[in-house]
Amino acid sequence: MNSALYDCRVMHHRFAPKVHRFRYGIFMVALDLDEIDDVAARIPFFSHNALNVYAFHDSDHLTLPGLEGAGIKANIVAWLTTQGIRVPPGGRIVLVTLPRVFGYVFNPVSFYYCYEACGRPLCAVAEVGNTFGEMKPYLVAGWTAGDVFQRRTPKHFYVSPFFDLNVSFQFRLRVPGERLDIHIDDHDGENRMLVTSLTGRRAPLSAGRLAWLTLKHPLVTLKVIGLIHAHAVALWIKRVPWHRKADNAAQQRGVLKPHASLAGKTS
């Protein structure tokens, strides 16, 4: 089975306009999109598109108009086609993400790793979410030695009120194996404003290991959303300038599941 768990450490280090740094622990699931039902059948407290202690819902992720009921793999394959990437028959896609916990989920970012039928890495996609329920996928297809996908691209998405929409993401995504190694930096021109890393160690996706990680990182999705708001307060106390979502709506481009504030204002 290609699906797994990753026991992770997250690090954020902001350099400007005020220094702010923090670390925390979480766990993530790495789901082969062809194995989700098999995982749900093996783990009694994990479900697919149903309420449980842990669950994966297709609708929590990339969904294209007209493909709402087609399933997560059909949607990501269709989106990749719009980007000029063809996933061949027999090609695998593994999604590294947070599951729902007692029905609640929030994913700041999830990662799709796509493989050819022979197992060779094809591309990656970073699916970035915000607290308004919006998401934006970013294709990361620049492959380098060491099975690392890299890309620098304009953000054009409202992620944090403490960053302007004109900054760029620098993605460096290593194909997951025994270790998870992900880096996302924010750049304003040539100035690096923020570095974020997500690193972790692989473990089998089993009922026992999932129960252990539940004890180690309880209510993981609530922990993530709670930390986001706590550190937003800390940045506000430090008087870091902030931007309203309704400002510069036209710069918020390629947004899926757009918030009402973007109605008729984006492309």
Describe this structure as you would to a colleague.
The model has no long low-confidence stretch (mean pLDDT 93). The strands form two sheets. Strands 9-8-7-5-2-1-14-13-12-11-10 form an eleven-stranded antiparallel beta sheet. The longest helix is centred in the last third of the chain and has 18 residues, at 220-237. The chain has one domain (4-262). The protein has four helices and 14 strands. 33% of the residues are buried. Helices cover 17% and strands 37% of the residues. The protein starts with a strand and ends in a 30-residue tail after the last helix. It has 267 residues and is of the alpha+beta class. The chain is globular.
Describe what is shown at a glance.
With 267 residues, the chain is an alpha+beta fold. The protein has 4 helices and 14 strands. The chain is globular.
Q: Could you give the topology of this structure?
A:
Blueprint lengths: L3 E11 L5 E13 L3 H7 L3 E3 L5 E3 L15 H11 L10 E5 L2 E2 L7 E7 L5 E9 L5 E6 L1 E3 L3 E7 L13 E7 L4 E10 L2 E14 L2 H10 L3 H18 L30
Parallel strand pairs: 3-4
Antiparallel strand pairs: 1-2, 1-14, 2-5, 4-6, 5-7, 7-8, 8-9, 10-11, 11-12, 12-13, 13-14
